């Protein structure tokens, strides 16, 4: 049974609303003013709140603002009831987080429609959140054990052979096993590093002061970093001939370390999801107070649905395509970009290729570059 809190200083109206909603099977709790309503909302956490705007001392706007500021009540659907539904008042209420307005006087049918619409929308949002959580659990449970065990198995197996039979093995085989151990170790290192970086980014996003300080960092010569990291990624997969560079320099408001991470992840993905012999193009150019980094490939691309669902621990069509990694690279690049006041967008078509476009604000002249390093303890 859905529980609805009705906050209004007119007793007759509360009684009328209560009777009408109970006929529809709702549980109704009443509050005679905003202060009492706030306390009852904190205590019972209703499924919906109907609140009058014009009340003494604590009016509907103050009630709404107070409940929206607390985590436990911030997401409760909130309908304001008012006999003065002017544009300025409605806009103010919406800015504070109201979900709907119910102009007084209203009919019983209008009351039912408003309540049912808000409850249905809230249920849709909950269902969507639950689906995302389920997808996240499935992705983690499917990927994490495999991604950690695969490189670890290689390290342990070849390490055991070398520790017991090294004297009987030819140098070429020892070198080959050592190379496999090294590559497995690097893969494991990347997995752990991305996991730690993603966790740190999420914490930074919840600390406005540290996020603001990040934007005061600068990279004076981004072209040098982009060229070096893109070249390294191409060399790692023996695809230097596929790499195209078109780079222009302009100081940008991001640290060299974080710019390096963004470039590494985007170029790594471009090579990972495209075939040898197809072009990967990396461009860098200033436009509209921002530096734009564009990474394009001619790989299998992403469908529209996949582009809208980019997130942590998310890999697409994993059952159809063998993939390595936890699916954190793209979301790390996106979060880092947004932390610095920029944006990341994806233009993609399944079977044709993808272009990831990153826009980071240009560095302001005279901005301090001497802030303490904010990533202590990351590794």
What's the Cα radius of gyration?
Answer: 28 Å
Beginning-to-end CA distance, first to last residue: 49 Å
Q: What is the H/E order?
A: EHEHEHEHEHHHHEHEEHHEE
- Poorly predicted regions are 304-326, 367-379
Report the CATH topology name of the largest domain: Heat Shock Protein 90
Query: What shape does the CA trace take?
Result: elongated
**Helix fraction bin:** 40-55%
* Mean pLDDT rating: 83
| Number of helices, counting only DSSP H or I runs of 4 residues or more | 11
Q: What do you see in this structure?
A:
The structure is a single chain. With 379 residues, this protein is of the alpha/beta class. It has three domains: 3-106, Rossmann fold (3-Layer(aba) Sandwich), CATH 3.40.50; 138-209, Helix Hairpins (Orthogonal Bundle), CATH 1.10.287; 210-361, Histidine kinase-like ATPase, C-terminal domain (Heat Shock Protein 90), CATH 3.30.565.10. The chain is 50% helix and 16% strand. The protein contains eleven helices and ten strands. It has helices at residues 11-23, 34-44, 60-68, 87-96, 108-165, 171-205, 208-214, 222-236, 256-272, 304-308, 329-339; strands spanning 3-7, 27-31, 48-52, 78-82, 100-103, 243-247, 280-287, 290-297, 343-349, 353-361. The strands form two sheets. Strands 2-1-3-4-5 form a five-stranded parallel beta sheet, sandwiched between helices. Strands 6-7-8-10-9 form a five-stranded mixed beta sheet. The longest helix has 58 residues, at 108-165. The radius of gyration is 28 Å and the shape is elongated. The two termini are 49 Å apart. Mean pLDDT is 83; it is low at 304-326 and 367-379.
